[in-house]
Structure formats: structure tokens, C-alpha cells
Amino acid sequence: MYKDWPHIATDMSALMKELRVGAPDTMKAFGAMAQAATAPKALDTKTKELIALGIAVATRCDPCIAFHAESARKHGATRDEVMETVGMAIYMGSGPAVMYAAQAVEAYDQYVAKNTTA
Predict the structure, then answer these.
(1) Pure H helices in the chain
(2) What secondary structure letter does DSSP report for 2?
(3) In 3D, which of 57, 63, 54, 55 has the Cα closest to residue 81?
(4) Rounded CA gap, 31 and 95, in Å?
(5) Could you give the CA distance from residue 92 to residue 58 in angstroms, rounded to a whole number?
(6) What pTM does this model have?
(7) Which of 37, 45, 69, 89 might form a disulfide with 107, Cβ 3.0–4.6 angstroms?
(8) Which residue, among 21, 2, 4, has the nearest Cα to 114 in the 3D structure?
(9) 40 secondary structure, DSSP code
(10) Residue 76: how many CA atoms within 13 Å on its side-chain side?
């Protein structure tokens, strides 16, 4: 099953704009929480994005996979690091996580391909 991960992220971004309009205070607070959570401290941002990608696999969240695969790539994650991350997600999430782990790698590869040809 092929999914266009950049397209999934674009579609979800458009839907999230509706939330920003309809629930601005909540979305501002969510944005602030995201900035605080991803800020480099004891862990760098790349590591935190890999953790988020693993959680996205374990919770089976397609848009989360799309966003965090791209963010991990932007912060310098390698394919090997993505593989180790999804390996941990498989370990923690069992069989269903295997299916989403394959999709997370596909998403990462699409973003790499998109940014090598652009």
C-alpha cells in the first residue's frame, strides 16, 4: 500500500488551520507545548523527533508519521536512525507497529527523494 506522505501532511496542515480558527487558545497552547517539548536540552531535537516518530508508529497515527518523518529528516536523522527508531516502536507496539514502521520508513524515504530532486 503506497501512501503519499508529503500529501498527507499538506492535507492535515490545511485541516489544522480550521482548528486554529475555531479553537485558537487551545491551538496556541498546543503550539507552545510542542516548542517546549522539542527544544534541545538534555536531548537534541533530532532525537526528540525520532522519539515522536516511534510514538507515531506505536499509536498508528498517519499524519503524525508524516509530520515527524519530515521533521526527523530536517533535523539530520539518517535512514539507519529511522530504522532503529521503528525497531524500538515494533518492540513496544508488537505486530500492528510492524505495519506502521514500514510506512514510517516509506514516509522518510519520500521526503528524502523529494528534497534531493527539488
Answers:
(1) 5-22, 24-38, 45-59, 62-74, 79-117
(2) -
(3) 54
(4) 32
(5) 7
(6) 0.81
(7) 69
(8) 4
(9) -
(10) 5
